[in-house]
Structures are given as C-alpha cells and as structure tokens.
Amino acid sequence: MAGGGNAIRGSRVGAGPMGEAERGEAAPRKAVTYFCAREHRSVVTFAVEATAPDSWDCPKCGLPASLDCDNPPPAPKIEPYKTHLAYVKERRTDAEAEVILDEAIQLLRSRRKSGDIIF
Ligand SMILES: [Zn+2]
Fold first, then answer.
1. How many CB atoms within 10 Å of residue 79?
2. Cβ 55 vs Cβ 66: under 8 Å
3. pLDDT tens, 85-108?
4. pTM score
5. DSSP E strand stretches across 1-119
6. Helix axis angle, 94-113 to 80-91, nearest 10°
7. What is the mean pLDDT of residues 13-34?
8. Distance between Cα 110 and ligand 1 center (Å)
9. Ligand 1 centroid, distance to 65 Cα (angstroms)
10. Ligand 1 centroid to residue 101 C-alpha, Å
11. Inter-residue contact 58 to 38 (CB < 8 Å)
C-alpha cells in the first residue's frame, strides 16, 4: 500500500497544475545535431519549417561544426598556440615545446596588461 501510493503522489506533484510541460510551444520543432573537429556534439533546435544550415558554430568551442559526424569541418587557424604545439609534437622536440609554451604565456600576460582580465 505504502509504495504504490507514494509513486502516484510523486508523479502528480511533478506534473504541476497545468499538467503539460510543453505549454506555449505550439510551433513544432526539430533537433539537428552538429559535430565539430573537437568531437563535440551539439544539438540545435530549429522550427520544423526552417532549413537547418550545413554548418553551425559549436557552442562549446566556437569551431565550425557540420552535420556529418564522420567529416567535421577542419578547425581554422584561430589559435596559433595550438597549431605551433601540434608542429612541435610531430617533431618531438621538447626544448622547442618549452619555447612555444613560454611565448604563449607571454602573449597571455601582454593581453592581461592591455586591460582584459582573462583569468
Ligand atoms: Zn566544439
């Protein structure tokens, strides 16, 4: 008796007086999934009558994302620090990696001095 009664009371409380969670959403919508080069999966909701664009900026990292999970668009060179580090990794030269890191840190510090507090 106790178990069944509790379950029914719980569901009633969760539903609320209106009884429907989707009230006010009269326009039907569709969810479109985009994939970026960093393997983020982002679901963007469009109105059904709208045409989903082939690409969408990833909300997580800002890189362009596409509808094809097997072929996301390549990351543009907006982050030179990472690109340099990738080169260094290919060449496996730890000493140069430290130089690149140091340059990146100095770049961050100079940005902070210019007024924008990043951290
Ligand atoms: Zn992303």
1. 14
2. yes
3. 676 666 666 677 778 788 888 888
4. 0.44
5. 29-36, 41-47, 55-57, 64-66
6. 170
7. 69
8. 27
9. 7
10. 23
11. yes
